């Protein structure tokens, strides 16, 4: 009976040691789980901040694109007006050449001025069109980034 009692005490001691070991492992696992939760929350917050930043950039680029588009439209209208003026000046110039050579210098000056204005408008139009294209490329880049956010946000279940 003493041997059996000693054997049972030994088993109880072993089971207590095993239980303590398991309790330590469980506490470690609970700490690790809490750390992983905190890490996931931080990652989610970082991802949300990145999404908000991308949305702000998208809004800013959209405003810039609209402004560039409006500017391009305005410059096209101005360009058309100047072309009409240039045509009128050329017609006037031809009329003056046929009969009134005294006013030829003034007409030539007007035509030159109209040509200079036209060239300025064309240069400005090209710049605005380049800005519009650049804005569109930036918007495409943001759209691609937003499409890839789902892939960035996917975190494997084992926390790695």
TrEMBL record:
Alphabetized InterPro entries for the sequence: ENTR1
Regions annotated as coiled coil: 19-92
Gene Ontology CC, one term: early endosome
Spans traversing the lipid bilayer: none
Superkingdom of origin organism: Eukaryota
UniProt keyword Transport present: no
Cytoplasm is among the record's keywords: no
GO biological process: positive regulation of cilium assembly; positive regulation of protein localization to cilium; regulation of cytokinesis
Recorded family membership: Belongs to the ENTR1 family.
This protein's name: Endosome-associated-trafficking regulator 1
Organism: Uria aalge
